[in-house]
Amino acid sequence: MAAKSANTGNPPPRRARGLHALANPARFMRLARAIFPFAAVIAAGTLIAGVVLGLAVAPADYQQGDAYRIIFVHVPAASLAMIIYVVMALAGAAALIWKHPLADLIGRASAPVGAAFTFINLLTGSLWGQPMWGTWWVWDARLTSMLILFFVYLGYIALQSAFEDPTKGARAAAILALVGLVNLPIIHFSVNWWNTLHQPATIMKLDRPSIDPSMMAPLFLMLIGFLAYYVLMLTIRVRSDIIARRIRNLRLMQSAG
Amino acid sequence: MVRPFLALIGRDLRLAFRGGIGSLVSVVFFVIAVTLFPLGVGPALDLLERVAPGVLWVCALLAAMLSLDRMFHDDHDDGSLEQITLGALPLELVVLAKAIAHWLTTGLPLVLAAPVLAVLLNLSTEGFVVLIVSLLLGSPILSLIGSVGAALTVGLRRGGVLISLLVLPLCVPVLIFGVGAVEGAIYGFGERAHLLILAGGLIVALVLAPFAAAAALRLTLE
To answer: What is each CA distance from A233 to A43, A118, A119, A195, in whole angstroms?
Structure first.
């Protein structure tokens, strides 16, 4: 259809569908306003339930005592750090392929949240490492690859804010995010090869998770809570970004007379 | 296609050679940085022998970063980059030619200087050949990944600092497998696997990096 209509000059008007409908900022603002209360309620509910179950109900570990409870923050933060990076890279691909303005905004809005989760993951890991391994920091494979992920996030944020034109900054950062998407698994495996001290994965095993259901439930709740919190932050940040741009345009129009 | 490609490499090489001492900055930095390590950690030969592969690789990595911002920056400033992009050569091949020229003027001198510095650091004799081979395979990857960083920051005023922040984290695998190969040769658990992975990485970077860097250049030159 696009190929035919290209010859006639103007493509026939058609109703925007799916993601393209959201390129209209007003329409996206409506959707974001609709999502906002749901995300807020889910985030608050699951986080409170997860904290109560994790700190009060779940039994202490037979080896690690109560210190293991830090995983209820540590593990979901790690998942979010990686999920947000993938979202960012996919949004970057969408921004580069379809020039979708919303994709730019999602990348801009996600990066600081992802960096914060990565930092929380590193911090909680360090706090857990002190009683368990007897040291605040070890150059273990997972810690190191999370640290590198943190640096990649910082690079993304720095690159995106280095451009005066925000769209250009978002597109440049999108390219970086895609290069990172190819490179991060390689970094992960190379660091893994380099040194392994961290316990192997327990939840994402193919047969059955080697973790008790009473510990699994709060972990799962916290993960849902963190995800909802991310969606919440995303709607807030994208909306305020759109509003900030509108204000800037209004000011420019005003000063132009 | 081949002639403009070679002409572009030749032009960059001539520019580098006629730039005087400026083109040698990376090697000089490499030599000085390696020299600082014995001053920092002490002159004990057994200690130096143990850290030698890592020190040599890290310093080579940093030295390769040093000249990255010049890959496109000067050409962008005097407008010749836009002239080149208007030419017959696709932008992907322009980037590849620039990366090759960067490697010939930065990476190759580092490879040549490395054995001399390895003697200063008391590297075991078993490691010498592997050190050179690993640098030969690894340093072009640095130039290729670096070309993406250089292309992303080409129009920016303070791009030089930013490039290191963008590129260094992505270079971690090169460092790990480069050092791994040398240590594998020294401690006798084999260097083959590490070198093969480096070679694979070089092929992947050769194929993918020019596309990413060309996309970045198209964006920043808009």
So the answer is: 11, 16, 17, 35
Residue with tokens 């407008």: B79
For A139, which DSSP code? -
SS3 assignment, position A65: strand
Sorted by sequence, the CB contacts under 8 Å of residue B184 that are 6+ apart come out as: B130, B190, B191, B193, B194
Give the residue on A whose Cα is nearest the Cα of B209: A179
Contact of A222 with A73, CB cutoff 8 Å: yes
Nearest CB partner across the interface for A190, out of B165, B176, B219: B176
**Structure tokens that stand for B33 in this block:** 């940085």
At B153 the three-state DSSP class reads coil
CATH classification for the domain delimited by A34-199+213-249, as one of 3.30.310, 1.25.40, 1.20.120, 1.10.1740: 1.20.120
pLDDT tens digits for A158-205? 998 888 888 888 889 999 999 998 888 888 788 777 764 444 555 544
Q: Which residues of B touch A186 (CB under 8 A)?
A: 173, 201
Query: Looking up tokens 């001492």, which residue turns up?
Result: B21
Residue identified by tokens 């030698």 is B52
SS3 call for A61: strand
